[in-house]
UniProtKB/TrEMBL annotation:
This is Rhomboid family intramembrane serine protease. It comes from the Bacteria. It holds the Pfam family Rhomboid. GO terms for molecular function: peptidase activity. Belongs to the peptidase S54 family.
Amino acid sequence: MVPLRDNNPTSITPYVTYAIVGANIFIFLYQITLSPQELQAFFNRAAVVPCQLSTTCPVPVDQGIPEWLTLVTSQFLHGGLLHLGGNMLFLWVFGNNIEDRLGHLKFFIFYISCGVLAALAQWFFSQNSGTPMVGASGAIAGIMGAYILRFPKAQVLTLVPLGFFITTFRLPAYFFLGFWFIQQAFYGLVSLPARTNVGMEGGGVAYWAHAGGFVFGAILGPMLGLMRRD
């Protein structure tokens, strides 16, 4: 299911959401100028590499920046155009309303914090992995966790493939986002019997970062004033 838009108007211009989308696109354009070897080196420096964070890598990498800082920088890296496009679409649909509720500064703090905590959730299950973890998915999952609390009945225009046919439905946010969270948690649990390497053995998806980000977003949002009355 692909969200196209919601029926949830905002009262502000979501400058932080726009800036985050722009930063992700700009960095991706830089990525595609790199050779495969340069891109791998760039990911080793700026992405979260769990064994580097755990200091358990067989061969330590001199990456030039503190490993803890990659919990932030990795949120602006993506593994491909579809990865970038999917993340930015979800951010575009749901981020503006959370920014509207929290305000610009609190929203930025919320976004970065959800991304950091989501990455740590995935790291917990893959502490010895040497595979770089990239993407804004954890931070955006936090936005979704906050959205389902604050706007559970908002209608989301959703693109749904049905076999050879593609149609659209208007789904309540609690159904769309709740189904997404259950799916991520289920895939994360299924992957546990196998060696977990930032979700990469399961097709390159960090399911625990998604599920963890969703939960942390639902916790941090109210703490920052998400549920306040106008």
